[in-house]
Amino acid sequence: MSVRADALRANYTAIAEAVGASTGVLLMVKANAYGLGMREVVGVLEPFEPWGFGVATAAEGIELRESGVTRPILVCSPMPEGDVAPAVAADLQISISSLDALRKLDQAAEESGATAAMHIDVDTGMGRSGFDWRTAADWLPSVRERSDRVEWVGCYTHLHSADADAASIREQWGRFEQVLGQLDDDEGPGLVHVLNSAGIMRFPALGNAVVRPGIYLYGGRVGEGQPDPDPVVSLHARVVHIREASPGTTLGYGVTHRAKEAERWATLSIGYGDGLPRVLGNRGYALLRGTRVPIVGRISMDVTVVDISGVSGVREGDVATLIGSEGGESILLDEVAQLAGTISYEVLTGLSPRLPRVWVAEGSGS
Ligand SMILES: Cc1ncc(COP(=O)(O)O)c(C=O)c1O
Question: Rounded to whole angstroms, what are the CA distances from 300 to 127, 134, 196, 349?
Fold first, then answer.
C-alpha cells in the first residue's frame, strides 16, 4: 500500500481554500487516520497549522498527545466512563452528549485538579449521540450551571447525508441554529462546527469557526458533481505464482470458478487478511502490465487469483495494482468500494496492519 503525501497536501489545500482563511480545520484522524497512519498524516499536515485534530476514542487522543501533538485534540464519540479521567489528564477535549456525561467530566476534572474542555454535541438528526436539539430549553440551563472546572470550548453537530442530499444539510443547520439562538452572546462556546468533507464542498459558506474534514483528505469522493480529491492511497501486491489452468481446473474455496478453456492464472500476495474485501471475488479487478484483469474465484485470507489469459508477459515478481493507476488505466478507491457494496471509508479503514504503508513524497497515483 502506498500513500502519497503530495496528494494529501493537495486535498487539504482544496479544503482550506474552499472554506477560506478565517475558518479553522479540525482534521479528523480517527481510526488511524482512516487507516493511512495517524502519526504520518499528522506529520504531513501539521505544517498547515490546522486548528486541531479529531479522534473517536481517548486511546487515540492519548497516542496523539504522546507523539508530541500540542494542538487541541477533540474526542468526538461519547466515551466509556473509565476513559474520562485519562482523557482529561492528557488534556483532550471531550464531546458531551448528556448531563450525566457532563457530571462525570466535572468529577474527573475535580479529582485531577485540572480544567476539562468540552464541546457540546447537538443531535440534529444523526441520532447516535448528542443532546436533542428539540429539548435545548431542558438541558441548556444545566450546561450553564456547570462548575468552573469545565470549560465550554465548542458546540457542534454532525451531518448525516451531506454527500447525497443538500436539503438535509439545510435542515440540520436550521435545527442547530435553533439551539445557537438560545445562547446568550456572552456565554457558551467560542467555536461552532458542523461541516464534514461533503458539507464543506457543498456549503463552504457554512464553515463557521471550524470544519471537520476526513474522507476527502484521504482521497474518497464526496458525492455526485463534487470535485474529485487527488488519489492518496494505492494498493499493490506482487504476483507470487503463475499457472496454466487447463479446461475444467477448479479454483479457490467453494470452487466458484472453473477454467472453461485454457486459462492463465496469477496468484497475488494479498487477501482479505490484508483488508481486500472478500466480496470482490469474481467481481473485482487488478491492473497488471497496464491491463485490467478480473479477480477469479473467492479471495482467500492471504492470496487472490486473477485471470491473466488476455495479458502477455506477466511474470512472477510483477506488481499488480488493486487500487491506483497504471499506464492509462485506473481502479479508483470509490470504484472498489462500490463493487464491494460499501463505502470508501470502510475500504480504507479495513486495510490491515499487515500491509506496509509506504509513504511517497509524490507520485502518479500508481
Ligand atoms: C463527528 C465527525 N465529524 C467529522 C467527520 C468527518 O467526516 P468525513 O470523513 O465524511 O469528512 C466524521 C466522520 O465520520 C465524524 O464522525
Answer: 37, 49, 35, 19
